[in-house]
Amino acid sequence: MRALTHRAVTVDDARERVEAAILEVGLGGRLDAVNVIDPDCAVLTSVGVDHVDYLGPTRESIGREKAGIFRPRRPAVVADPEPPRTVLEAKAKLLLLGRDFGYAAEGPQWAYWGPGGRKGGLAHPALRGAIQLRNAAAALCALDTLFERLPIAMQDVRRGLAEVTLPGRFQVLPGRPQIILDVAHNVQAAKVLAENLAASGFARETVAVCGMLRDKDIAGVLEALAPRVDRWHFASLGGSRGAASSELAAALRGEAPRHEHASVADALAAARSGAREDDKIVVFGSFLTVGEATTWLNNKTSTR
Q1: Tell me, what's the pLDDT at 211?
Q2: How many whole angstroms separate alpha carbon 5 and alpha carbon 203?
Q3: Looking at the structure, do residues 15 and 158 belong to the same domain, yes or no?
Q4: Residues in a beta bridge with 93
Q5: For the whole model, what pTM was predicted?
């Protein structure tokens, strides 16, 4: 079986008789390009406030746009623990977290229950963070709804949980000081990042490298992470949407030390030069920020 993600199905895919195509919605849902495909199952992991210029300013308006990928009488897995009314009123076969499927931690393992029954003794996903159990449960629920057409053996499920990777989502790089890459760019994602940092073990100091787009809730994101950060290195992002480092520094409340830099590369270089081995450096705020940091780190490695 071949899985497709981050792009639309092509003619070549049809010729190759792809068994399963996994399409990620880029923005919203109702008007996103992937919505030209009629899905056998749709999955909605969460509804956060973001892209308000396109999707509306509230969770209700954003929920309506996201539910646009649902189809009447077809399964729609909803993993948001408090879905907006606009999602609950969608004309689809809704499977809700806590009602139709769920999960429970069981020491070093966890258990899932859903339309296909209960599956216990599961290893935690290779992805870091407690929220990954919720995401994994949603994925297993989707597989349950598709089992007659796409039967997946439990050995393959267990292998998938053990080998899954997702760059840029609390991605912990090897070496010291520890560097964590996370594309968190809205308040909801920033809160999850803060929780993951709190659970990630000791650090003498946590140093942030942050670059954001001007149309995001900059103050809200910084407020969510401020209790977990000891020093800040702000980076300017290019383009018409990129926020200047001075704008980010001005939006941060409190007296934590802050430094302004012309680029992500400059900010990360400064953070690394001032960090000790037992510090953590967390790079976040945008896909652009993590992308530029990754490029800089790869160049540093290749020139050694």
Answers
A1: 98
A2: 35
A3: yes
A4: 75
A5: 0.78
